[in-house]
Specification:
The chain is mainly α. Helix content is about 65%, strand content about 5%. The protein has a domain at about 45-220 and about 230-255 and about 360-390 and about 400-405. About 30% of the residues are buried.
């Protein structure tokens, strides 16, 4: 039987467990067809209809709900860690979310009253929170179940196709839940116990998933033809992307669920913007401000130095402030969640096409998980109908202990400087999404794309952004010097 397995055709991989002298299992990827592998291993099939549809549908429902929350319910003026049911304003509103919110308010269907929470918007927010919370908890338990099941099969001749499928599905569940944590931070901040056990569960899932990705990198391919040399397996290159996204996504989203980290970044962005505005007011020489005689009477070298250095300093403060705002914005959460799930869904479909077509047959086992998706939807409908109606009063809505004069001034978001830097910063995010989503030879691996992205994100883009911001202050200074 072992000789037959080693000589099967080159299509899809199976993982042969090879125990070394240290009793540690190492994986070798031989080229077996999926159908024959299933018949030899005797393992239950990880079918597309039974598992993938359930995971993918649940994940996309969460995406749709979160996008709906951002478009219709989210108000960037409110403190994300306020007491539930209140309207406490934040001292440091996010400029990115605020500017997008202004655009959305110009659309009649998306416009809502930001000064007071109406009964309708309160009901909608309650329903969306319940939907996200329910589907997020489903992602926790389903990802734990599939990871535990996969690890329990390590001692068997588990198929590489199934192992990779398990990684994609577990990652799909974890990334969906992590994004949900950011959207539910107001609810979780008021319920520390709920936040604690979910963070512990997600930490466990991330560790198990990271180990699974690490094991997948030990896959080796036997050559189809000994004369052609070893076949290059692209999976380790994808595994590197997995590890980078797992560590980065988990660390950032966990930190953003706590007020100290999120509030600190917002406060820093506000102070950087204030410093830039202070330099701009002093050295811009605008018509409505009195000219600084000390600067006007300074020596020519000093005036030349300020002419070139001050606009760059203004640009540095403004660009760094916008980058921090973009990092902490809810818009970035929606963006990364959307493109990450697109990439995982595409990888699942591509992997499924090369799989065993008999897995697509619909039986009772495949239909049952799809039907069970009705449960969270039924809960959402129930919450919507039991929420207070427009005729019922909603208590404890007013809690505004922040002096409006202390709130960060966001008038600068309408300037051409801000919009230009915002556009350039968005290009960097788009470039990163293209790298992770597109499955092309140029975007595979980690070395070449990392160098290209680093040069663009940390050198080219900052230089362009600073040049854009510093152009207008330098123009106004040119006229004050009497130059033409």
């Amino acid at each position: 039987m072992q000789d037959q397995l080693s000589n099967l055709s080159l299509r899809h991989g199976t993982i042969d467990m090879v125990h070394s002298s240290t009793s540690l299992a190492s994986f070798s990827l031989s080229k077996n067809s999926q159908a024959e592998a299933d018949s030899h291993t005797g393992l239950p099939k990880l079918t597309f209809n039974e598992v993938t549809l359930t995971f993918v549908i649940t994940a996309w429902v969460v995406v749709i709900v979160l996008v709906g929350y951002y478009l219709k319910v989210f108000d960037p003026k409110l403190d994300p860690f306020r007491k539930e049911g209140t309207q406490k304003l934040t001292k440091y509103p996010n400029s990115i979310d605020y500017s997008v919110h202004e655009i959305l308010q110009s659309i009649r269907r998306l416009k809502h009253d930001s000064k007071s929470i109406s009964s309708q918007s309160s009901r909608l927010g309650t329903v969306l929170n319940s939907c996200v919370l329910t589907f997020a908890d489903i992602q926790i338990f389903t990802s734990l179940a599939i990871l535990i099941g996969a690890y329990a099969s390590v001692g068997c001749d588990i198929v590489a196709y199934h192992w990779q499928y398990m990684i994609y599905l577990a990652w799909l569940a974890s990334i969906t839940h992590l994004a949900s944590l950011s959207f539910l931070r107001n609810h979780l901040a008021n319920n520390p116990a709920k936040r604690a056990w979910r963070l512990v569960a997600m930490c466990t899932i991330q560790v198990m998933l990271s180990v699974a990705v690490g094991l997948s990198m030990t896959f080796t391919d036997d050559a189809e033809d000994p004369d052609e040399g070893l076949y290059e397996n692209p999976w380790p290159k994808h595994a590197i992307k997995f590890i980078v996204l797992l560590v980065w996504g988990f660390a950032v989203r966990i930190a953003k669920t706590f007020e100290g980290f999120e509030g600190g970044l917002r406060r820093t962005a506000s102070r950087l913007e204030q410093r830039g505005n202070r330099h701009r007011r002093v050295f811009s020489g605008s018509a409505e401000r009195e000219w600084d005689h000390t600067f006007a009477e300074a020596s020519l070298p000093r005036r030349m130095w300020r002419y070139f250095s001050v606009p760059v300093l203004i640009g540095f403060y403004s660009v760094l402030s916008i980058q921090l705002d973009l990092f902490t914005s809810l818009l970035a959460e929606v963006y990364w969640l959307f493109f990450t799930i697109i990439w995982i869904t595409a990888r699942l479909i591509k992997l499924r096409i090369s799989g065993h077509q008999d897995d697509s047959k619909w039986t009772f086992g495949q239909v049952l998980p799809i039907i069970l998706l009705v449960a969270p939807l039924a809960l959402a409908i129930e919450v919507f109908h039991t929420a207070p109606t427009a005729n019922e009063p909603i208590d404890d809505l007013q809690e505004n202990s922040v002096n409006k004069s202390d709130i960060r001034d966001l008038d600068h978001i309408r300037s051409s400087e801000y919009r230009g830097v915002f556009f350039l910063a968005a290009l960097t995010y788009i470039e990163l999404a293209v790298y992770f989503v597109l499955d092309q030879p140029l975007t595979q691996g980690i070395e070449t794309p990392l160098v290209v992205i680093s040069l663009s994100a940390f050198i080219l883009q900052p230089v362009l952004q600073i040049s854009w911001v510093s152009h207008l202050p330098r123009t106004s200074l040119r006229f004050n010097f009497g130059w033409t």
